[in-house]
Each structure stands twice: as C-alpha cells, then as structure tokens.
Amino acid sequence: MKKSILHILFLLIVGTLSAQEVGMLFDQANTSYREGNYQEALLKYHQIDSLGKHSADLYYNLGNTYYKLNQIGPSIYYFEKALVADSDHKDAKHNLVFAQRMTIDAFEELPKNIFQKFNEKVIYPTPYNTWAWVSVVLSFLIALFFLLYYFSNYSGRKRLFFTGSILSLVLFLFSVSFTIKSKHYILNHQPAIIFNSKVSVKAEPTSKSSEIFELHEGTKVQIVEQIDTWYKIKIADGKVGWILENSFKKIKS
Fold first, then answer.
1. Does position 31 have pLDDT exceeding 90, yes or no?
2. Backbone φ, ψ for residue 126 (5° rounding)
C-alpha cells in the first residue's frame, strides 16, 4: 500500500516538474520570437514537441516561426497540424491563408455536391465515438418508446409512442451510418504537405515513369495508396500521380 502511494506521489512530482519545464520553455520561445530570434524560438518550440506536449497553440507558433523564416512548406504543415488539433483555431485558419498565398501551385477544387459538403461540415468534424454514443442513446429510446407503445392502453398515446419509436429508429440508422463514415474518414484521410522545392509527379510508381505534372513546396495533397517508397497522391483538382516518400510530410501521425 505504501509503495503504491509513493509511486503515485512520484508520478505527480514528475508530472508537475515536466509541466513547469514546458511552461518555462514556452515562455522562453515566445520571448525569442518577439525579439526576432526565430531560430532560437524554433529550437525551443521543437524541444516542447519532442517532450510530447503537443497542442494546437504549439503548432500554431511553429507555423508562425517558420513563416518568419520564409519556410513556406513547414509553415503550412504546422498550421494544418494546429487545425487538426483544434479545428476552430481562428488564428491558425487566418495565418494559413496568408501562407498558402506564398505557394506556387494553384489548383481549382472540384465542385462538391450537397452530400459532400454535409460530410465535411457535420459528419467528419465530429469524432466517430461521439456518433457511436448517439447511436447507443437512440437505441435506448427505440426500446423505451416500443415498451411504452406496447403497454399503453390509449390509442392516442399508442400513436405518439409508435411515431417516437419510428423516428428514433430512423435517427439511429443515420447515426450508425455517420459513425461508419466518420471512422472510415479518420482511418483513410491522409493529408500531407509537399516539403521539397519541386517534385516530379510520375504516372507510375517508378523513377523511369513519365512525369505528368510538377508540385512545389507547400502544396497540400491527399495520400491514396502506397507501394514501397512510392505514394499515390491526389490534388485538389482531382489529378493523381506518384511521388517518393521523402518529398512530403503527413499532417496526421
């Protein structure tokens, strides 16, 4: 019993010291940034990142620092990571737009139908486990309404409970569908940022294949498939091709 208490106290002390260290590093990095010592700020922000203390604000600050150093690829990369950590981070959204204006590539996005827009604005931003819990709650409502319908002696109430059970069932089916879609999106949606100044996109996953187009630093792509060190990517206008793994960095770990 004493050993377990001592172990808990040890973990609390280590956690407190770690938090203090991170707080000091963050303050030092912010001071260096304000003073224009961007390389020093970058080093300290990366120290925090290496300690596993990831946050939207940390990534946002890294994006700003890289932007000041005129490194557009890393800047966009960290602004995007900030938005993965916090999709409502307004400053990251705002600065990302400025960083993207510095890129060479400009593609016209494919038009999206109403279902695709609904997916992107409602289904995908909501974690799939949240949709799963909604499904569980609705399943209880289905059972409750059915029992109330079965044991009710009044026709008016029976109609009300029957309507409630049918509505709950419909919403349950939708929520299950949203759960599956959200999980599939999280597992398969792999955005990445081009880091090389220029990348040759090949028609096939081999260096001898013909080049079909070029990409440049800071361009966002979607990873579709992998074969050895080659990755099939898709860009905003729907074009696909193959690039080597050392030419980009995945936004999501």
1. yes
2. -90, 125
Q: Find the CATH number of the domain harbouring 18.
A: 1.25.40.10
CA atoms within 13 A on the CB side of 104: 11
Both 205 and 172 in one domain: the answer is no
Smallest Cα–Cα separation from 221: which of 69, 82, 80?
80
Read off the tokens for 116: 């695709």
**Residue written as tokens 């224009």?**
36
Q: Of all helices (H) and strands (E), which one includes residue 146?
A: helix 128-151
Give the structural domain span for 199: 191-250
Q: Are 245 and 229 in contact (CB under 8 A)?
A: yes
Amino acid at 137: V
- 249 DSSP β-pair partners: 193
φ, ψ of residue 211 in degrees (nearest 5): -80, 130
pTM: 0.79
Same domain, 90 and 34: yes
- Answer yes or no: is 113 within a domain: no
Question: Comparing C-alpha atoms, which of 161, 171, 244, 168 is closest to residue 201?
Answer: 244
- To 5 degrees, how large is the angle CA 197–CA 202–CA 207? 90
Determine what percent of the chain is predicted with pLDDT higher than 70. Answer: 92
Closest CA to 230 of 207, 198, 199: 207
